[in-house]
């Protein structure tokens, strides 16, 4: 067994020497990664494997895109209040010449943390338009205990219907230079939830709106806007 090992290693050394001049021809792959923190009172350092992407990411904020080698990574989080504990949040496969993002949130009881990893289409929208989607970490319940989904309207026009906890909407293409009077409604009736948002958009921009908290509570329900192409 030892002889075989030495033979293999010797062959590798020879092959490495022969190919040394051609190594530069191997393309270096790269991908982009962004992180959003949707967990109240949490502040995170973010690592992909051993690479620190960001430090001190506060609730409701996101990192800029970081460029890394395209490959599979494990996402690790270190919470500021527990610096000795490293949280293994999940994995993400960063593919070549593409952009990805990870979003963390928590259930309505502030007990179960969840993560969503997404590919971000940063292809520019048509002229005079913008692109827009919703990532929901909002969790609410009916009186009978069933989970409650929410709808997103602009004034009386619906854009997304039945958005549940930890769900992501499709991407909508909308007129860019406009202010949308967003309001959220219960999916089971037309009740307007207390939170409204005057969303001013710009042509050419790509947005994600993140919702957190209890949609039926004016104190906990919040929205945060990410602009993917600053």
TrEMBL record:
InterPro entries: DUF4397 (IPR025510). Pfam families: DUF4397 (PF14344). The keyword Signal applies. Residues 1-19 form the signal peptide. It comes from the Bacteria. Residues 34-139 form the DUF4397 domain. Keywords: Signal. The keyword Signal applies. This is DUF4397 domain-containing protein. The lineage of its organism: Bacteria, Pseudomonadati, Bacteroidota, Chitinophagia, Chitinophagales.
């Amino acid at each position: 067994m030892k002889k075989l090992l030495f033979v293999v290693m010797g062959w590798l050394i020879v092959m490495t020497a022969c190919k040394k001049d051609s190594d530069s021809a191997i393309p270096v792959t790269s991908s982009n990664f962004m992180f959003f923190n949707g967990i109240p009172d949490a502040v995170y350092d973010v690592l992909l494997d051993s690479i620190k992407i960001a430090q001190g990411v506060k609730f409701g904020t996101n990192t800029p895109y970081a460029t890394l080698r395209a490959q599979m990574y494990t996402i690790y989080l270190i919470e500021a209040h527990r610096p000795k504990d490293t949280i293994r949040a999940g994995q993400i496969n960063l593919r070549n010449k593409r952009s990805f993002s990870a979003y963390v949130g928590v259930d309505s009881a502030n007990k179960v943390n969840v993560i969503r990893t997404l590919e971000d289409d940063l292809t520019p929208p048509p002229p005079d338009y913008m692109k827009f989607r919703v990532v929901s970490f909002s969790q609410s319940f009916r009186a009978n205990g069933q989970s409650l989904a929410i709808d997103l309207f602009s004034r009386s026009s619906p854009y997304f219907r039945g958005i549940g906890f930890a769900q992501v909407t499709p991407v909508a293409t909308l007129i860019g230079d406009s202010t949308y009077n967003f309001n959220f409604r219960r999916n089971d009736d037309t009740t307007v939830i207390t939170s409204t948002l005057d969303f001013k958009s710009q042509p050419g921009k790509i947005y994600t709106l993140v919702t957190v908290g209890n949609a039926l509570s004016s104190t906990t329900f919040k929205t945060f806007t990410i602009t993917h192409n600053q």
